[in-house]
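Issue 218. Parser rejects a valid record. Input:
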Amino acid sequence: MIIPLVFTRWIRRIRRVLKSLILYSLIMFLAILFIGALAIYLVEHPYNPGIRNYFDAVWFIMETITTVGYGDIVPVTFWGKVVDMVIMPLGIAVISILTASIAGELTNMVITRSLGQHVSSRRNHIVVIGCVNRALKVIEELMRMMEREGLMMDLTYLHNGDKPTSLPSDVEFLRGNPFNTNDLLRAGVDRASTVIITPLGENSSSSDAEAILITMRVKELNKDAYIITEVLDEANRDYAFKAGANSVVSLGSFTTTIIAREALSRGTSSVLMRIINDGKVSLVKAEGYVGLRFIEVVEKLKTTENRLIIGVVRGSDILINPSNDLIIQPGDLLITVS
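Output the parser choked on:
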């Protein structure tokens, strides 16, 4: 279902009106409260022992216009009763308008959020962009891994369509065009820690071109975000990196490599999937191990943290099972499995 542009504009107009009503009714409420209290204080203070100071007058007006009516303070003069008769209907009317305005604004916020038309207020979150089928699989896997590893990170899904019924309730949904800068900003990509861009379709050439274009726009908005871009054609990996992606995943290349390895060494695919799914593969900064030999770090981490080191990332090089005498240098990352 495509929401008409006119309907969206009406929602925004109603929201602006409600906001102004809340402001005006709040101002009126405060005016009635303090001006009414001043009037009551001036006419009642000399004769009413219950109104000893201005605060007593404010208290009396507050319980009057909110219809609480404790009865601890009552006007005793003719003009005091006249002032109170004027304040009561005005106060009740303003309170009613203020209550209705707040309720209307809250209802409008719920509707706007359910339609994905709101602006995300999240920071350091993960933004997922892409077609429903692929993006939902990524989101589900992310949530499964975070639950298993005890991590807590907010997830936001930006999609140019209706909210998927199977989208987990704790994943924020925003409806918008990922090619539109304003919609990217609504999703908070400028404040996100990670942005995942999956294919928007099945056609490799057009989907990869779209993913690369979105990568460029996200990089322009947030140079510090870690951008993960998935391409369908292995030949487009370099273009995605040049567009600003920090990591590029080629599904076809990944699966064909596993298949080829399985053909040459049966059972390899099961082992690899077990490591990926069940093992906590992570990159650990080598701080504290600089200057040590690789074999020394292996023994130390295995003994103290029960971690297995399978390699070292040094700049753009990935050294799997390096020499035992390899010296750990500043800036190295250790590839560990726990």
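Fixed in the parser; the record now loads. Residues 1-6 have pLDDT under 50 and may be disordered.
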